[in-house]
Design brief:
Layout (H helix, E strand, L loop, with lengths): L1 E2 L3 E2 L3 H7 L19 E4 L23 E8 L2 E2 L9 E6 L5 H12 L12 E7 L3 H15 L3 E17 L6 E16 L10 E2 L5 H11 L23 H10 L15 E6 L4 E6 L2 H17 L2 H13 L2 E6 L1 H9 L18 H6 L2 E9 L9 H17 L4 E3 L3 H9 L3 E8 L8 H9 L2 E5 L28 H13 L2 E3 L5 H10 L4 E3 L16 H10 L2 E4 L3 H4 L7 H15 L4 E3 L19 H10 L4 H25 L23 H7 L7 E3 L4 E3 L10 H17 L1
Parallel strand pairs: 1-5, 2-6, 3-9, 6-7, 13-14, 14-16, 15-16, 16-17, 17-18, 18-19, 19-20, 20-21
Antiparallel strand pairs: 4-8, 7-9, 8-9, 8-10, 11-12, 22-23
Helix pairs in contact: 2-3, 5-6, 6-7, 7-18, 12-13, 14-15, 17-18
Length: 715
């Protein structure tokens, strides 16, 4: 039993049922010693040879002796920091796998939990001959539940056995054995991928096996932490070499350096083969553990190891995440009600950002298109506020506004937060509003969302705003792009029509990005980018940040990780890896491709791209270098334009269909207030009683208008 693990004891029925039962006469006593027992400690120093054997008269398991009591020493928890309520399943040699799995599955799936939601973690432990059965239980659980993170620990423990003789002489003896022990933690929540013994979820196994069958029917790669290896691999006899391997792989040695004096049959299983091993000594266990890790690192698993290593060296920058929208919809921006480190019902939280090697994330301050010409500015300010609070109230996050700050955050192992505005309707056709957003930390703005603005056209026909607008960039639209260049704000042309995107590319002085778009060649959606436009983007020096939205990946309701990789492959073929980045759009889509379910899954995509022979340099560019290059160039253009005064361009009044927009000239003459038109965010409809653009002195203005009209009639 572990100490300090915080495990639940609901499985005691199995601990009692499956434990070796003591002699009924000894019940209530701690392994009673009758007379003078013969104590045999079957252990010896590591360098002793040959292996010691018990005296002939005391050979265990032969006629005349029977085991009446077996106890294992308490071991410290191999997984420190586990939350309370973790299920521990102690597997014994005589355990029934069906019974163990029936109980464990019921608890993990919530059938026997008062909360109904199921437990999040389970620990399977076994020692001696139960090791194989422990591994089997873990593998069954992974297949049944799916998407489980695994952490495996090997260690050794001392077992005390009491044997009773029915013959004369020594009536009882105590045997101390040092046996191997394995502990496997399975977790629905992400675990630290840098922890030795970590194995990511294998929800893509079937898909990978299908592709492997097509590519090569002869591959027999092992993906298990303890997988098969040929018997001929046991060639190590140098004890110093074995000790070195134990140190390198952090494998615990027995407290007394003892060796095994009995044969232990282990059966290791994997996807492709089953191999049996005879463990003659502790050296074989060390070699087995080391070689299994070696094989795991040189089979299919090595690609994942390379992915993690690459992402550790070049942590990822993603250009689009809509968690702020979810915080508003689910919690009304009340951060005190949530734990941002664990939001399992969402696709994004701090724990999974770290597991996905995300070093910088651009969070979108998004408001719905129906707020256009109403209270879009106020709503955008509220979204900027929640992003700023989110990134300043959590020590793992750091709000940044420049490439220098972004890179400094990486040196401090912080997740850098960038703020973007998703949709030009948020500035209410006002350059001063754009400048104030920049001062609040906004460093990118999408020219349109799914609605036209008075000065730019979207690719969507979802809304009816400004339908008479043509595909050219209006004079005010050009002023917006110019002011963004002057400020050092990244121009984002995702969501815009193709002609509008082309017009922006031809007018801007700085590189632009498609923050969350994919290839039209792979999926013919209006939200994706055709090849001819990719070539214009290449000439501009900008980026297309590939979107994971299922409908834009496959143009169907379902997609998988391989189809996302197809987008990367095609764009690379057309304009090169130096023009690609990540803009997954997590929290901005109803579904995501299989294998890319949340922000922790980025390494799976890097693994797939490595399998497609993408080079380390290509992936380093895609992961972060490309975005940093574009951001630096935007800052360079800003510095060149630092002598340029802020633009005072105003949009012509006749171009804005805004009943809530106060006409100052008319108001000065008549002191009239525009009709009420507050936008109700919940219902999506306009409502009374007041217009959000209206000042707090409305009653006074109405009174003044009445007095003015009265005086006119009196005269």
């Amino acid at each position: 039993m572990f100490t300090g693990c915080g495990v639940v004891t609901g499985q005691n029925q199995y601990l009692t049922r499956d434990a070796v039962r003591p002699n009924p006469e000894l019940e209530g006593q701690s392994c009673r010693n009758a007379g003078q027992p013969a104590v045999v400690n079957i252990s010896s120093p590591l360098k002793q040879a040959p292996l010691p054997v018990p005296p002939p008269a005391l050979k265990l398991g032969q006629e005349g002796f029977k085991k009446v009591c077996r106890t294992e020493e308490d071991s410290p928890c191999p997984f420190p920091g586990l939350a309370s309520g973790v299920l521990e399943m102690r597997v014994k040699e005589g355990s029934k796998i069906r019974n163990l799995m029936g109980f464990a599955m019921a608890r993990m799936q919530g059938e026997k939990c008062l909360s109904g939601g199921g437990l999040r973690q389970v620990v399977f432990t076994g020692s001696g001959r139960a090791v194989t059965k422990t591994i089997t239980c873990a593998e069954i659980m992974k297949r049944k539940v799916g998407s489980l993170h695994q952490l495996t620990k090997l260690r050794y423990k001392v077992v005390k056995e009491v044997w009773e003789s029915s013959e004369g002489g020594a009536s009882e003896m105590t045997v101390h054995r040092t046996v191997p022990s394995i502990s496997i933690l399975l977790s629905k929540d992400p675990l630290d991928p840098q922890e030795p013994g970590y194995q990511p979820p294998e929800n893509l196994t079937a898909l990978w096996e299908e592709k492997e069958a097509v590519e090569s029917s002869s591959q027999t790669a092992c993906k298990r932490p303890l997988g098969p290896l040929p018997y001929s691999s046991f060639t190590h006899s140098d004890e110093s070499e074995v000790s070195g391997m134990a140190w390198e792989f952090a494998i615990s040695q027995p407290p007394d350096g003892s060796v095994f004096s009995y044969l232990e049959e282990w059966t290791m299983s994997s996807r492709k083969a089953v191999t049996s091993f005879s463990m003659h000594s502790i050296r074989h266990l060390l070699v087995l553990s080391s070689l299994c890790r070696f094989i795991s690192a040189n089979g299919t698993e090595t690609v994942m190891d390379r992915a993690h290593q690459l992402m550790t060296k070049y942590p990822l920058i993603d250009a689009h995440n809509d968690i702020a929208t979810s915080l508003r919809a689910d919690y009304h921006n009340n951060l005190s009600e949530i734990d941002l480190r664990n939001l399992s019902h969402l696709t994004t939280d701090i724990t999974r950002l770290k597991a996905g090697h995300v070093q910088a994330q651009m969070f979108a301050a998004f408001v719905l298109c129906p707020a256009q010409d109403k209270d879009a500015v106020r709503l955008t300010l509220e979204q900027i506020d929640v992003i700023r609070r989110m990134c300043t109230e959590h020590q793992e996050l750091e709000l940044v506004t420049s490439t220098e700050e972004l890179e400094n955050a990486e040196k401090r192992y912080k997740i850098a937060c960038l703020i973007s505005i998703e949709g030009g309707h948020s500035i209410d056709s006002s350059l001063p509003t754009l400048r104030m957003f920049y001062r609040l930390g906004v460093r990118s703005m999408t020219i349109t969302h799914n609605c036209n603005t008075p000065w730019a056209k979207t690719s969507s026909n979802l809304y009816t705003f400004y339908q008479s607008l043509d595909n050219s960039l209006t004079s005010f639209g050009k002023a917006v792009v110019e002011e963004m260049n002057r400020l050092g704000m990244i121009v984002d042309i995702s969501h815009t029509s193709w002609d509008m995107a082309s017009a922006v590319l031809n007018h801007t002085k700085a590189p632009v990005i498609f923050s969350h778009s994919s290839s039209y060649f792979i999926c013919r959606s209006h939200r994706n980018v055709p090849d001819w436009l990719l070539h214009e983007l290449k000439q501009n020096g900008g980026l297309i940040m590939v979107n994971f939205h299922t409908n834009f990946v496959s143009c169907k309701d379902k997609a998988n990780i391989f189809q996302v990789a197809d987008h990367f492959d095609h764009i690379k073929k057309v304009i090169g890896a130096e023009s690609i980045g990540f803009g997954a759009d997590f929290e901005g889509a109803p579904t995501f491709p299989q294998g890319l379910d949340d922000v922790s899954k980025y390494p799976h995509l890097i693994q797939e791209l490595l399998r497609r022979n993408w080079t380390e340099n290509d992936l380093a560019n895609v992961l972060r270098r490309n975005f940093l290059r574009v951001f630096r160039e935007v800052e360079r253009v800003r510095d060149q334009l630092n002598v340029t005064l802020p633009s005072e361009t105003q949009i012509p009044a006749n171009e804005v269909q805004n009943l809530c927009r106060l006409n100052l000239e008319v108001a000065r003459k008549l002191q009239q207030i525009p009709p009420s038109c507050t936008f109700n965010l919940t219902s999506g409809r306009t409502s009374s009683p007041t217009c959000r653009a209206q000042s707090g002195a409305a009653d006074l203005l109405i009174l003044a208008a009445v007095l003015l009209l009265s005086s006119m009639f009196i005269d």
